[in-house]
Each structure stands twice: as structure tokens, then as C-alpha cells.
């Protein structure tokens, strides 16, 4: 049974919120009483998900945002503040996977795209979230890294580079902004049952079977298990937790 949090009168923003871990986390924030901004590159899906939350009695809006475009990231935060008056919590979750590639054959296009979304996108979103939270003197940010931010795996260099980068970004910003009342942490999900992973299971069956086998818990993680960890990191229960990269991976990185 998950703990419950009272986020009434708080505002949460989630990127990559139209599906998977982002959608589960947006729903969890709403269930805890927060007003939620669901941002996604797929505007229709974001608005549809937000509409479902509103129909259930929650406060929510859907916003189109391609996090690789800093102007869109700035507009996303501005829309959150204009609509709900403040910004208390953010889960910078938007991310993409790269097709596996021999490191000597990786294309610059693949490397640049993966890092544009997974690293630069987190940087852009966080930059503008921090400006609002700095003004308020309070806030909590969780950036989505990965088990790929903690270990290396063959044929995953571009993706793992981006996710290692998220951890370095998180730690540096965390020590800079903790004195300003803003806590910044990262989460490192293992293999989670999401649409992105379902696609990988289909297209990279052997590799995925091997990765799943390395999770000592013996199963895929669930999106709501990631949401539970994000909400804890954003809550007063984690008030002394700053700059961590928290594995939520069924024991994968404990090997």
C-alpha cells in the first residue's frame, strides 16, 4: 500500500505525461490533490489525458511541449504559472530510446537526437522551472535518468551517455539550489512496463529478455511504482534528500 500525500494547493508539472511513467505520475499527483500540468510532444494525447483527470474531479491542463525547443519549455512553465499561479513540483520525464548500435557505427543523427531529448530537454525544462521556484523560494524537481545513468551496456552508448548526463546535471543543480529552497533529485528506473519498453520487447526481444533476467526481482517494474518514488521525492517526507540518483530498478544496479 503506497503512502498518501496531501498536495492540495500545490501545482505539479510532468513532461512526457501522455503515457507510461509520466501519465502514471500525473495521475498520482492529481490523486494527491495537486493541480497538474501534463506536457507532451503529442498535444492531443496530453489534452486527452488532462481531460480524463478533469472529468474525475481534478484540476489539470494538457500542454504541447517539445522539450528540445527551449522556447517551448519556457512557454510550458509560463502556462503552468499563468493557469495555476505557482509551480511546486516537476517531474522531467520526457525521453526517447535509441536503437542499439555498435559504438563505431553510431550515427551522429542518432546521438544528437537522443541527447537533445534526454539531456538537453531536461536541462531546458529544469532551467525554466528553477526560475519560478527560485522566485517562490521553494520547490522540488525530479529528473528522469535511468539504470542506464548508473551502468554501461553494450550497444547503448548514446542512450547511456544522455542518462549519465542527467545525473551530473541533477547533482550540480542540486547543490546550487538547495540553499535557495529548491530540492533537485533524479530517479533511475529499471525496465518498466511502458509503451516504449513494449516496443523494445517486440523489436529487441533477445536483448530485452537478457536485461529483464538481470532484475533480481524477476519481473518488469510498473509505472505506478515509479510514480510512487517521484511523489516521495517531491514530498516533505524527503525534505533532507538532495542530489540523489535513486535506483528504482528491481535490484538491477545492485549486482
Automatic annotation (TrEMBL):
Keyword hit for Phosphoprotein: no
Keyword tags: Oxidoreductase
Keyword match Oxidoreductase: yes
GO MF: oxidoreductase activity
Domain of life: Bacteria
UniProt-listed Gene3D superfamilies: NAD(P)-binding Rossmann-like Domain
Pfam assignment, any one: adh_short_C2
Transmembrane segment boundaries: none
Family affiliation: Belongs to the short-chain dehydrogenases/reductases (SDR) family.
NCBIfam families per the UniProt record, alphabetical: PRK07231.1
Name of the protein described by the UniProt record: NAD(P)-dependent dehydrogenase (Short-subunit alcohol dehydrogenase family)
Amino acid at each position: 500500500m503506497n503512502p498518501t500525500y496531501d498536495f492540495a494547493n500545490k501545482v505539479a508539472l510532468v513532461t512526457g505525461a501522455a503515457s507510461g511513467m509520466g501519465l502514471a505520475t500525473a495521475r498520482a499527483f492529481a490523486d494527491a490533490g495537486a493541480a497538474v500540468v501534463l506536457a507532451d510532444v503529442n498535444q492531443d494525447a496530453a489534452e486527452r489525458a488532462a481531460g480524463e483527470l478533469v472529468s474525475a474531479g481534478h484540476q489539470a491542463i494538457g500542454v504541447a511541449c517539445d522539450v528540445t525547443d527551449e522556447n517551448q519549455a519556457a512557454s510550458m512553465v509560463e502556462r503552468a504559472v499563468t493557469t495555476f499561479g505557482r509551480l511546486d513540483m516537476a517531474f522531467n520525464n520526457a525521453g526517447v530510446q535509441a536503437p542499439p548500435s555498435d559504438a563505431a557505427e553510431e550515427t551522429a543523427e542518432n546521438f544528437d537526437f537522443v541527447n537533445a531529448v534526454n539531456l538537453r530537454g531536461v536541462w531546458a525544462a529544469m532551467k525554466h522551472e528553477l526560475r519560478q521556484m527560485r522566485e517562490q523560494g521553494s520547490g522540488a524537481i525530479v529528473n528522469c535518468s535511468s539504470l542506464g545513468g548508473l551502468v554501461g551496456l553494450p550497444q547503448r552508448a548514446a542512450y547511456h551517455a544522455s542518462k549519465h548526463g542527467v545525473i551530473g546535471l541533477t547533482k550540480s543543480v542540486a547543490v546550487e539550489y538547495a540553499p535557495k529552497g529548491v530540492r533537485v533529485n533524479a530517479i533511475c528506473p529499471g525496465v518498466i512496463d511502458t509503451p516504449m519498453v513494449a516496443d523494445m520487447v517486440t523489436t529487441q526481444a533477445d536483448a530485452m529478455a537478457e536485461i529483464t533476467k538481470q532484475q533480481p526481482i524477476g519481473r518488469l517494474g510498473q509505472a505506478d511504482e515509479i510514480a510512487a518514488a517521484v511523489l516521495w521525492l517531491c514530498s516533505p517526507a524527503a525534505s533532507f534528500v538532495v542530489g540523489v540518483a535513486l535506483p528504482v530498478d528491481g535490484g538491477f544496479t545492485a549486482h
